[in-house]
Amino acid sequence: MDMTNEQYYDLIRPYEDARRLLETRLEILNHSLYGSRAVCGPIHNMQNRIKAKKSIEDKLRRLGQRDSVSNARDYLQDIAGIRVICYFVDDIYNVAAGLKRQSDLVLVKERDYIATPKPNGYRSYHIVMGAPVYCLDAMEYFPVEVQFRTMSMDFWASMEHRICYKKNPEHRERLEQEFLTYAAVLKEIEEKFEEYRERRENGWPPEEAD
Ligand code: 0O2
């Protein structure tokens, strides 16, 4: 039997609290990680979402579970999600390390699809962090999935999500090949921007005479 709306809102409330807590920590890291005098923090923008009722029910069914509140708590770690879009790949690892160092948070899961991209070309760094939520006389950890991407990773993943991911598009094989090529091109562009940053920080080499 589906969850009632009331059960759904009761279910998501502590996940919203956990998501807010992590988002605040990320905002603080953004303006403190590189020092208060830094021209620019590591984060370009953040998005967040709480999984919709139907998506929770569908996912539980896919997992072969009844869509009850307790199954959602036991089996889903992505009810609360934050997507953090950074400028550079090392910003991603720096922000993630800053979060993982915080002793009141627990690292529940880590998937590094930047070091090891998925076969379809997907690149992103995912961690699930347990955040403490206090009620009157008890504390419980609630998981929040944080996906870190650069702008180019996010561009690719958003288009792929729309066109291919969990879909059955026409000419699937051709599309998959094309997406793999785009992933490689975007990675190359990302590396070019990293070079510019290094040159800006370490000085540009003298221009070659004709
Ligand atoms: P949606 O529609 O974005 O919510 P999990 O499904 O989380 O239990 P897993 O495999 O450990 O299991 O999760 P993983 O690999 O960390 O992926 C979680 C999320 O990353 C996905 O959520 C997507 O948002 C994103 N993702 C993973 N692989 C791909 C990919 O190939 N393409 C794109 N565009 N996004 C991807 P959901 O719930 O699957 O989907």
UniProtKB/TrEMBL annotation:
GO biological process: guanosine tetraphosphate biosynthetic process
Keyword terms of this UniProt record: Kinase, Transferase
Superkingdom of source: Bacteria
One GO molecular-function entry: kinase activity
Pathway in which this enzyme or protein is active: Purine metabolism; ppGpp biosynthesis; ppGpp from GTP: step 1/2
Stretches of the chain forming a coiled coil according to its record: none
RelA/SpoT domain segment(s): 48-171
Family annotation (SMART domains): RelA_SpoT (SM00954)
The protein's name in its UniProt record: Putative GTP pyrophosphokinase
Organism: Enterocloster lavalensis
